Amino acid sequence: MIITLPGPTIGVVGGGQLGRMLAEAAAPLGVDVVALDPTPDCPASAVAEQVEGSFDDPEGVRELAERADVLTFEIELADPDVLESVRDEYGVAVHPSPETLRTIQDKLVQKQTLEDAGVPVPPFRRVDDVSDLEAAVEEFGAVMLKARTGGYDGRGNVPVHSVDEAEDALAELGGAPAMAESFVDFERELSVIAVRGDDELKTFPAGENVHEDEILRETVVPARTSDDVRERAEDVAHDVLSLLDGRGVFGIELFESEGGISVNEIAPRPHNSGHWTIEGALTSQFEQHARSVLGWPLGATKRRGIAVSANLLGDVEESQPATLEGVEHALSTPGSGLHWYGKHEVRPLRKMGHVTLVDDEKRDEDVTTDDLLETARSVVDELCFADGGDSPERGR
To answer: EC top class, in one word (predicted)?
Structure first.
């Protein structure tokens, strides 16, 4: 392969914060980005060109294909059928593949694919009606009822603790196709950011995720567990990627329990739990995604030190224009990396930005993971939205 600069253009379905950070990482490589997004002046538009249109708009995807050398996506609401059709019509590559997106979009199909390949997953079963859900509760005990498509950040998930709750739980999903998954008595939630290039596969060090109400609040790297567990998590990530087609970055969420490692969910794109890589790794997950979808050599995934990232979530009771206050403290804290996503409206618990702290492990004094986490929390505590409360929800 011969690479010359300025480089090609990447077309991205989705122009949210992930598209924005992808464009920021692509620019130093001489790579342009054009994003398809329905929101006028979407976050990515600050650093990329925007095509306004829905994520599944065939004409919008065609315009991306006309302007780009390769297509990718930063949101699972992209339509694999449209991507497949445009790929065949224009001969433009799509990474990860539409087939992979189709597999991952349906949580039941995703879990069946993993189970059939021998990848460890929690016990699960298909739910088509109340009797299916009741049978799942009787078999597994408490379960998490999940909409098979469309759910994220806790949306589309309903805990069910007894058969008496089955009918109401299904009604809460509005009749959407569902699956029931046994609750896992886990010690911690882990994630591995994995990347597949043209002929290479790499993983970033396993991180530990702190969730509340099924929304990611903080990520700690390396995960506060044993070397053997971290190594096993990365091995499972390799097994997962062997089942999926196409190049790109994948966020793989896992449970660590007494029984070992099991896969929770897969995201076929850069992931919130990989934001620490911007300051904390030799190559960020976003630069890796740009490199990989283009078929370029991948960068190093080694971490620079201990890293902690904390999400900045909307602390408001109802939607309002987004104005962030308390920024001075974040900027004056040594080693603090503040990321603002450029969303014009803040909503309750909406992801608006994040803060990263990295210890380069070369200081004279000993800095622990807990020290970094405490500092990150103190920075986030000082940030708030105008007329939106005392501090953003961080998950405490």
So the answer is: ligase
